[in-house]
Amino acid sequence: MASDTEPSNAIKLLHLFVLSTSWGMQVWVTFVAGFVMSRHLPRHTFGSIQRELFPYYFHISSTCAFLSLTLFAMSHPSEQLSQEHKTQVYSPFLTHSPNPFLCSSGWLANCGDPYTVKRSPQAPKLQQARGPGGEI
């Protein structure tokens, strides 16, 4: 049974689920799916698949990072945290020292990726117009 200072088993399980979902997805997308698709699919097909998958990847990653941090912060009272833990927990909410993963994933999901997705279908058309060896 959880005490007043210890998180409940449900919170611990939820935190583990969110963290393992995030890490598992990152490992799969980075080391398995990306390498397999890049070796077995034509370049333009690979690009169009990545163009569709990456917005989901960035949104799920940033959501999992936020939920993991929120669950940790909720289950650990700030009075009991060391200064290092306080810095890690509160840094995403401070404008001067943001959590790099949460901020970069959020930026990519909302700003960088839509810009890239919007313009990336133009590259195959330009390359086909230039012919073989005219890649840009």
From TrEMBL:
Q: Which parts of the sequence belong to the TMEM205-like domain? A: 18-90
- Residues passing through the membrane, by range: 13-36
Kindly give the InterPro entries that the UniProt entry links to this protein.
TMEM205 (IPR042623), TMEM205-like (IPR025423)
- Check the record and name the Pfam families matching this protein: DUF4149
- What GO CC annotations are associated with the protein? membrane
Which subcellular locations apply to this protein? Membrane
Keyword field = Membrane, Transmembrane, Transmembrane helix
Major site of localization recorded for this protein: membrane
Family annotation (PANTHER family): TRANSMEMBRANE PROTEIN 205
Q: What is this protein called?
A: TMEM205-like domain-containing protein
- Can you name the source organism? Zonotrichia albicollis
